[in-house]
Design brief:
By secondary structure, the protein is mainly alpha-helical. About 65% of the residues lie in helices and about 0% in strands. α16 crosses α17.
Length: about 425
């Protein structure tokens, strides 16, 4: 038997998917970079100090504007919790910064249909509300105190430096003036490249897994597994099994969209797709990080709470879209039908690749390699040392050196500080 043919088939499928989603990814990360560069995030911890509707709404909005890979989002949530944010608000920020972000919505709309984007932006807030309610019963008292004590140890997880960097442009002026200023463009380039650096492994992993599924797993097997022939069973089973598949796939962030497309074409329910995409925050590597950050008991409760909220949000999306007649009537996600040809996708890829090259060049011309080296490490390595406010310095691109002692290149985004009025936004 020729073992190379099925492997080549899977790789070719993954490559075709990558080509199909390339320009939407570049567009999404570029828009995300603009938002992160220009949205001011002063006094974040103060806004997230409770679990009131106002605090949760602030956490959701700030999280959606602070696009992150799942690992950086988890690290940033721990940082906010250590600074005084409530556990519920920190988790709401974490959920929003991976599930309510620009790039995810664009990819879902272009490759699976606008209904999936709408489902994500309806189901995400539902999940946040459910998590906050569950935490009132299951995450309080001694277990929260123990989680905070564990968090204060500052045990390193993953992407700590990426989570800590705040390069937003804090000066005065209109949106467009700040965007097209030298510092604004430097900040957009920095966020763009670093977001890619944080998630490229997840995107590649998701494409390879999706390619293998599409090439090797017979569609009739998937349809039988997801009970496609029985609408009621499928609606019940999909949101229950979706997060489990996500946990075992080890893929998070936007990298799970190609696999979501394969599962949708294979028969999983609409609500099952939503719960699968939500589950990037309970993949096994992230659960192990929760254990490091908050201790074993808290990690188990976070995982169980997230899973239950994902399932219920999936059911809510399933019921709402069925009631309104918005559930897609066909299973033809574009990503699983992808092929490389000279069409509008190719032209768009060429145009957006040119944009990506310009941002890459700007990033590396302004100290980008040093910033990439700072993406890992210990959280305390990035959070100690006093704030820019304390020393009268600017924390955005083009600011001066740490603590006002070291003169640096005027265009280079600087290492952020964790205390003071301007908190981490990424």
């Amino acid at each position: 038997m020729d073992l190379f043919t099925p492997v080549l088939h899977a790789l070719a499928t993954a490559g075709a998917m990558a080509w199909e989603i390339l320009w939407p990814l570049i567009l999404g990360f570029a828009l995300s970079g603009v938002v992160q560069a220009l949205v001011r995030r002063e006094h974040v911890t103060r806004l997230l100090s409770g679990d009131s509707p106002r605090a949760l709404a602030a956490a959701t909005g700030l999280g959606a504007a602070s696009s992150s890979c799942s690992y950086a989002a988890v690290a940033l949530a721990r940082s906010l919790f250590r600074k005084g944010a409530s556990f519920a608000s920190a988790m709401a920020f974490e959920i929003a910064s991976t599930n309510l972000v620009i790039e995810l919505g664009i990819i879902l709309a272009l490759l699976m249909g606008w209904q999936f984007t709408l489902a994500e932006f309806i189901g995400g807030p539902i999940m946040i509300v459910l998590v906050a309610l569950f935490f009132r019963f299951w995450m309080r008292g001694k277990i929260v105190d123990a989680a905070r004590a564990q968090a204060e140890k500052g045990i390193a997880g993953f992407m700590e430096g990426h989570a800590a960097m705040d390069m937003s442009v804090q000066g005065e002026g209109s949106f467009w003036a700040r965007l097209f200023s030298r510092r604004g463009l430097d900040s957009v380039a920095a966020y763009f490249v670093m977001d890619w650096a944080a998630v490229w492994k997840d995107i590649l992993g998701g494409l390879l897994i999706a390619g293998a599924f599409a090439a090797w797993v017979p569609t009739q097997w998937l349809r039988a597994f997801f009970f496609e022939g029985s609408p009621v069973l499928a609606a019940i089973w999909g949101p229950l099994i979706g997060p489990v598949i996500a946990m075992l796939s080890f893929v998070c962030s936007v990298g799970n969209v190609p696999l979501a497309a394969v599962l949708w074409n294979g028969g999983i329910s609409f609500g099952g797709v939503a719960s699968f995409i939500f589950a990037d925050l309970i993949v096994i590597p992230v659960i192990l990080i929760y254990r490091k950050y908050y201790g074993g008991r808290a990690a188990l409760r976070i995982t169980a709470t997230f899973y239950l909220a994902m399932v219920l949000a999936g059911y809510a999306v399933e019921a709402l879209f069925a009631f309104t007649g918005l559930t897609p009537g066909t299973r033809s996600a574009t990503v699983t039908e992808a092929s490389v040809s000279w069409n509008y996708t190719t032209w768009l890829n060429i145009a957006f690749l040119a944009l990506a090259v310009l941002l890459l060049v700007r990033f590396f011309m302004n100290g980008g390699m040093e910033m990439l080296k700072m993406m890992g490490g210990s959280p305390d390595e990035h959070e100690h040392g006093g704030s820019d406010e304390d020393h009268g310095q600017d924390s955005g691109p083009g600011g001066r050196g740490q603590q006002g002692h070291r003169q640096v290149n005027d265009q280079r985004p600087q290492r952020p500080h964790g205390h003071g009025g301007q908190h981490h936004g990424h």
